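Researcher: Please predict.
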Amino acid sequence: MENLEEKLLAEYPGLARAKEYGIDIVMLYDNVQRPVIERIRRHQIALNTFKLLYNTANVQTKKGRG
């Protein structure tokens, strides 16, 4: 029995290229199945987390220069 990744690769051969670049095509597929508002919500969480980490790193770097 084929797993989801095998089915996706059989149906969309171009995804093999994405897989070669390290893209998790099953995770990508699962994400596309989510409602748009849920994808936006998750993206916003990721963006907020990045900003927090980025700003924290910048503060630490500036403190280290003192």
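Model: DSSP finds four helices and no strands in the chain.
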